[in-house]
Fold this sequence. Notes:
This protein is mainly beta. The protein has a domain at 32-109: Nuclear Transport Factor 2, Chain: A (Roll), CATH 3.10.450. It has one helix and four strands, in the order H-E-E-E-E. The longest helix is centred in the first third of the chain and has 16 residues, at 32-47.
Amino acid sequence: MAEERPRRRRRASGGGRSDGAPRRRTAKRASGVELAKRAKDQLAEITGLAAESVSALERAEDGSWFVTVDLLELSRIPETDDVLGSYEAQLDADGELLSYKRLRRYPRSQAQESSNNSR
């Protein structure tokens, strides 16, 4: 006589759990690199200016992110005379732009840290 194996239960269609509750999808959080790139791309698109670099990335207590991006506001020859602007973008946890503002404007040749800190 053949050995009897226990039958496996079939899962109900729809991907639910065995207790009947729907399975939760956990969204992957964006990495710092992804957030910085999104902020850079979104600011360049909104302002029409070329994004030069990301100079700061900070996570707020509410889960949003503050990203400081340097944009080329005025191109000159020689390049040391270019005028750059530092912009702060606030992104939600998914990387969507919530707000942005210009923090300062400066010649490339004087790209030093600002003494005032907004946070």
